Amino acid sequence: MTLPWSIRSQMIVTVLALAAALAALEFVELRRGMGQAREQARGDALAVTSALAQGVGGFLADLDHVLTELASNPEVRPLDPTLCSEPMVRVLPYLRYAVNILAVDLNGEVRCSGDGEISAMASTPALRYDDRDWFQAVQARDALFASGPLRGRYSGRWVSVVARPILGADGEFLGAVAITVDLDRFQGFLAGAGTPQNTLLTLADGGVHILARSAPGSVGIGDTLPHDNPEVDIFQPGGGSLVTEDADGVERVFAWHQIPGSTWVIFAGTPTDAVLGPAFAALRRDVFWALLITGLLLALVTWTYGTVTRSLSRLVQGTRAAALGDPSRVPMEGPREVVEVGRQFKQTLEARAEAERDARAAELRWHSVTENAAFGVAVVDGDGDIVESNPALVTLLEEPSGDLGGAPFVEIFWDEDRGRVILDGLLEGDRLLAAEERFRTREGNLRTVRLTGRRAEAPEGGFRLEVFAEDITAQEDLKVQLLQSQKMEAVGRLAGGVAHDFNNLLTVIQGHAEIMLAAAETPIPRRRNAKEIVQAAERASNLTNQLLAFSRHGGIESPTDVDLNQLVRGMERMCRRLIGEHIRMHLELQPIPPVTIDPTRFEQVVLNLVVNARDAMPEGGVLTLSTTFREHGSTAIATRADEEPANTGWVILSVQDTGSGIAPEVRERIFDPFFTTKAPGQGSGLGLSTVYGIVSSAGGEIGIDSAPGQGTVFRVGLPPARSGTATEPAAGAQPTLPSSPDSGTILVVEDEQQVREIIVSVLGEVGFNTIEARDGKEGLELVRSRGDELDLVVTDVIMPRLQGPEMVAEFRDQFPTLPVVFTSGYAEGRIEMEALEEVGDAFLAKPFRPTVLLEVVREALRSRQELETRS
């Protein structure tokens, strides 16, 4: 018969099993900690190498910029020793870590140097570098080359040569300019890079020859890193990492990144002892606590054993006392009754434990679903308060505390009255199925959700409301953007058609007015009237171009050198009417050089910024438009203060308001298309994105400086025009038709009668014989029947029955040299300019002036005569 274990033995075995389990868990935790430590070290090293790669890449980019400038410098390119050293001497003191700057000819002979002593030696034939690898490499490519570690031929120091070729006009190799970098000093740069403790930095070339090391020790410049892993590609994108033994024999966790624009590689390594040290320290700490806890458990087992045995002794004694007739000492009668009570008690405990397990399992299932659900879940009590919420709902409502417990359900709705209606319906037992509603987050933002809810019984009795919220804000935003895009497309099509018809009318108006101005018999008062008509037609033409730009049909841009002060003054009156009397406007215009930009597009920039400033000051305020010029070395905008401009300065237009200001999270997206903070229907979100596109296409930059409650400043920076002088507007010039007679027969093909008549009138006025056609089909018949007597065809592009390009293509085989001038009231974005260039000789955009028409016609005829003369 096998005796059962004693209570003491069972307790000791339990404690030992628990200790074994703790030891196993500690071993697993140690393995996991060591893996995490290695991965953390790899990640930290990758981050360090990525940052340093950008830094060293920036240093090489600066050297490349200097070399590019020197290679194109007219004092350096001839490689004349009497001239080329001077600019190098000027530049050398400003280059960090540079030993010297050299210029060598195509034979490798030094012609000039930034070091005065070497410059004096440059006349000796012995001063050559044609045997250096860097000179041979720079001959083979038109790009920057950074060499590995070299011993300086004259200084004896460790250096690296950064070189770029000097090329002739036809790309032939004339020589090279090179900067020698002192690697000992550059090694100090790595030592002071501020890397984590125990991290060793190494800069090497493509052959893993060490260029610099943050802590040289036994390994330094010129040594080679080990090749224990030949399969590792150190030039893979994004860098890489591995654990290997370093050149000094220490095993390290390494990461590397390639330096942009070169074959250099930066390595960062941390000793594995330093990486795994915290994990072993944690192991020692945990072992100490495990031993302590085990000892306490053993003490507890000893104490519990004594307590249990004493209880059993009292039970035995009580049983014995009951057997002797003293039942008062035992709450049961005899051993059978004690066993029965124990059995009943056990059954009660088992039933209760099973019920608790079922309830706990149901609760776990509920929490598992809600905690991991992508949609928000809220449990609402009968008073309308949220008693439970899952993480998705907390995130949706941007609740900073992470808990919505106790919050009224109706307060999460954008419209609390609507929330109260939904709550009342759920309390009455109504089901809520896929209802689209709007929530207000704790940050005041709007979220569109699809709600589903029901009334359910609560486990503790009574009832509760279960509400599920799916965030569909992104889908709704996409719908709005799609509708806005469709609306803009419709507006664009309408604008293109209106602009076409309007351009035809302007051609007629402007043509007749200029004929009146050109006529000698026109009285002076009528001349003034005609001049006003011409100027009004030109302004109308500018409005048409603005309409085409808005409709995204493009428009023929005319960048010119203009004075921004003059343009701003010309728009002052319009801007004052636009902002209203409750806003004061000031102009602070300083003398500035001209810039190159389409004046109409610049006016669009100013109007958009002024409208934004007006909307930011609904209660009134001050709007200031100012201009200034910043010399080379200053930046165009505050947000780009860390960059140097690539030009000789910036012409800056500032639009400043005293409005409500812009929050940082809004400022980050202010130039995104379709992004707007205005209410639906009050803004398309395209204004500032259009401004950004116009400024960028002009080679400029735009920035913003704003804070809530402190107003906003938009700064537009544009590079100065190369000419240095602004183009004077020609709007006030009085047109004159040439007095010399012309000859020749011209076919005019135009479906608009008034436009056709003005073209025929202008051409006939100077002596041309004209033939008219109302559309492309009629024009084709006239060319085929009378083509031999025609000298030129002037045709519209878009016409009924047969369009202009198709008509020309039909007769081009029969009359290959007959010149063609196309006209159109549509912008370039609506017509295919490449197709016109293939079959035509010139393009004339409507509205056009008679003098411009005659210039284009005569140029086309002159080109044909020159072609016939050569043939």
Name its key features.
871 residues; alpha+beta; 5-stranded antiparallel beta sheet; 20 helices; 28 strands
Question: Can you give a write-up of this model?
Answer:
The protein has 871 residues and is of the alpha+beta class. 45% of the residues lie in helices and 20% in strands. The protein is built from 20 helices and 28 strands. The chain is flat, with a radius of gyration of 43 Å. The model is unreliable at 638-646 and 730-740 (pLDDT under 50).
Describe the main β-sheet briefly: 6 strands, antiparallel
Instruction: Look at the helices and sheets and give the structural class.
Output: alpha+beta
Query: Got a strand count?
Result: 28
What does the radius of gyration come to?
A: 43 Å
Low-confidence stretches: 638-646, 730-740
Q: Work out the helix count.
A: 20
Strand content: 15-25%
Mean pLDDT across all residues, rounded? 77
Shape label: flat
| Helix share, percent | 40-55%
Distance between the termini: 129 Å
